[in-house]
Amino acid sequence: MKNVIITGASGNLGKVVCRAFLEQQYHVIAIVGMSNKSVSEIEHDNLEIHKVDLGSEVEVNQLCEEICAMYPSIEVAVFLAGGFSMGDFKTTGKAELDAMFKLNFETAYYFSKQVFLKMENQGGGRLFFMGARPAVESAAGVNMVSYALSKSLIIKLSEIYNKAGKKNGVVSTVLVPSTIDTPDNRKSDPNADFSKWVSPEKIAQTILFVSSDEGSELREGVLKVYGNS
Question: Residue 43's domain is classified under what CATH number?
Fold first, then answer.
């Protein structure tokens, strides 16, 4: 049975991705934050849940050591943990930058670094990260500066992983969605045309395809999943 690690597994997107991999007979190692609700409402024999402070390098390293010792291989890892913040240059200072850097970059870096090293040793694997439209389209980041900058680091990190892992078959991909159609996003923008947003299910299916044998030749570093927007 193939193993997949999914961080941010208790979020709207995370739960959908967990279910999608479970349906494909993966063993899902779901990672949730210490203060987040669990994904225990998903009942499945192949679901394993861990809680950890993803911003703590020490705690993440300890958990990764335990997981890597438990399983001989990790075929896929999907890093979904993160957050969002508005703010233009007038309102963005060190506190705002630090908050977004920690929430979006550090939570991805500490865990993915350990998984990357595991995949190098086992001879291959797939890493997935969530980017953001403001990180690739500057105009979209004018009113969310700290968020855009933190997500741009995710794209650069993925590029480095691709370069470092090429000889050992480790491939890293960043999915860049437009607005994801979740209850929270609908509540924050109730007058939007939801039909133009991208569904969590479409994102999950994209990840599954790239992880599959059919998608094994894809080495595209950034995949824009914009839907109709």
Answer: 3.40.50.720
- What is the reported pTM? 0.93
The answer, yes or no, to whether residue 40 has pLDDT greater than 80, is no
Residue 39 has pLDDT above 70, yes or no: no
Asked if residue 80 lies in contact with residue 132, where contact means CB atoms within 8 angstroms, the answer is no
Residues contacting residue 154 through CB under 8 Å, at least 6 positions apart? 104, 105, 108, 129, 130, 131, 135, 174
Is 209 in contact with 118 (CB distance < 8 Å)?
no
Q: Of the candidates 59, 99, 54, which has an alpha carbon nearest to the alpha carbon of residue 80?
A: 54
Q: What is the spatial distance between Cα 224 and Cα 46, in angstroms, rounded to a whole number? A: 30
CB 24 within 8 A of CB 208: yes
Residue type for position 132: A
Q: Which domain holds residue 19?
A: 3-225
d(CA 12, CA 28): 16
Q: What is the pLDDT of residue 74?
A: 97
Indicate the number of domains in the chain: 1
Element (DSSP H or E) covering residue 49: strand 47-51
For the stretch 143-176, pLDDT in tens is 999 999 999 999 999 999 999 999 999 999 999 9
Q: Phi and psi of 76, rounded to 5°?
A: -140, 145
How distant, in Å, are the alpha carbons of 78, 89, 143, 166, 173 from that of 107? 12, 24, 23, 24, 17
